[in-house]
Amino acid sequence: MTVLTANRPAPATVQQWWVLTSRLIAPSLRNGEVAVGIVTSVVATAGFYIPLNRLMDGPDLPTSSYAQYLLPLITLQAIAFASVTTAFRAATDSVQGLNRRLKALPIASLTPLAARISASFYRCTIALAVAIICGYVIGFRFHRGPLYIVAFCLLALLTGLALSFIGDVIGTNSRNPAATTQWLLLPQMIFGYLSVGIQPVQRFPEWIQPVVRNQPISQIVYALQALAGDSAPGTAPVTWSVIGPALAWVAGLIAFTVPWAIVVYRRRI
Fold it and tell me: Rounded to an integer, what distance in angstroms lies between the CA atom of residue 237 and that of residue 148?
């Protein structure tokens, strides 16, 4: 008796990653998701700059204009909104059972995660580009060389990557995609408003200044402002004491998320 056996094909990881990534990116070009991201950046710029420009301008402002001061926060807000979509996608895949179906196929276990993060990186890149364009419209300018501009963009995108990773873990562990998105937006808005991205730390009440100064959004804003530079003499220099805390916060967020992610993916996927 002859037993026929079929060799299970080896997974083409790169091709599978591309197919799953395209599955997330292609609809965004048709359903208005990209347009919403663009509008979000424009609205955030107008919502912060128009009412606060004259109010926040003053001798204690460390930059030559409020547009120069505000752009890092606009960038972070745009990237944060873009990365929140990752949580919604992850929660939807988990609730609909797509993760379990993919696990039964010859697909590497981390390929779906890599696809969602790649799609989020794509959205964050668009958000970054639109935020910088909006900044140039209101008067922001880069005042350092090309390497510093690249570093500015890389730090912003690395922050988006960390937020996307956190959003994916929370979304995978969620049973309600819509509620997950709303809950993720709340802390981002709180940290954004209670940061030096809105106004210098000395303008906040003394009792909350240590929190405002040392929280992650403020540290990343300090780093982005230094990398962007300014025509004013009081601009912070690009030193390890300025850039290091921002990188430490981003690396710390990722390091905190990895063990949590392992537990969540093993339980939910």
Answer: 11
Residues in the chain: 269
Written as one letter, the residue type at 256 is F
- C-alpha 88/C-alpha 226 separation (Å) is 33
Find where tokens 């300018």 sit.
141
Q: What Cα–Cα distance (Å) separates residue 164 from each residue in 37, 82, 105, 194, 237?
A: 15, 9, 25, 22, 29
3-state secondary structure of 217: helix
- Token pair recorded at residue 153: 């963009």
pLDDT per residue as tens, the chain (269 positions): 444 445 555 557 788 888 888 888 877 777 777 787 788 889 889 988 998 888 887 777 888 889 999 999 999 988 888 778 888 777 777 777 766 676 666 676 677 888 888 888 998 999 999 999 999 999 999 999 899 999 999 999 999 989 888 888 888 777 777 777 777 778 888 888 899 999 999 999 999 999 999 999 999 999 999 999 888 777 788 899 999 999 999 999 888 887 777 777 766 55
Tokens of 72: 């890092």
Strand locations in the chain, DSSP E? none
Please, are residues 224 and 129 in contact by the beta-carbon 8 Å criterion? Answer: no
For the residues of 53-83, what is the DSSP string, one character each?
A: HHHH-STT-SSSSHHHHHHHHHHHHHHHHHH
